[in-house]
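Something for you to look into today, if you have time. Could you write out one complete protein record for me, on any chain you like? Leave the record below and I will have a look.
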Amino acid sequence: MREDQWRNVWQRRVLMSSPYVDPFDGVESSEPAAKSKRPSKETIPLSFHIQWPLMQIGNALSGMVNGYKRLFKMSDSDLKAMYLKQAKSMNQKGDTKKCVEFLENVVRIDNRDADIIYRLGVAYEKNGQPDSAIKAYKKVISLAPDNAKAHYRKAVLLIKKQDYENALTDLEEAIQEKPDSAELNFRLGQVNDRLKNYDKAIEYFTRAVELNPQFLAAFKNMALTYDSLNDHEGSLKCLKRALEIEERN
């Protein structure tokens, strides 16, 4: 056998007896290198692509469940504070409906908090629910009879409904707490005028403009009351004063 033939036989024996080492797992293989297929580092199993969205949904649901668990564990005071914060945010955004809903949630937690019920009444007014507002103010008054603000706002709504007798009762309660309020004196003048208590109305209107000399509405209403008393001179004086205020403004 020639030398080159012996060399070829020797090389084949060396190749067949040398083990193949897989560089990815470090395990020796008896398979020759030519029969091995190297896996790609970039290959990601199809099952992972399928399971990934499900894993994400599972994580989201888990977060929601944990959130609800924390919510149910919250104390009444914490829930109340949370709803009040949301109500304030909705009020600032002008979303009166949502503001009402959050305040109603607060009242369900604590129906003895006169201040919160008063705020609910104001929210009802803003949301165009005068009857609900009146009901809320009545509740406030039952809890805090000296709450002048509740008496006043209830009275204004009753004036709009032309329920002057009940409006007068509320205003008389309110004025005891705030005797130096120009607004309350004006409203008492207004109600007494509607009830044809003209002299009493003049007293309250006069007091209102003493407390606030720029009270345009009080001068205009007082002019009409003087006219009802056939006091045309008094009516003319009030109208002139009203015109002066309007010209300045």
Observations:
- The first helix runs from residue 3 to 17.
- The longest strand covers residues 20-21.
- The radius of gyration is 42 Å.
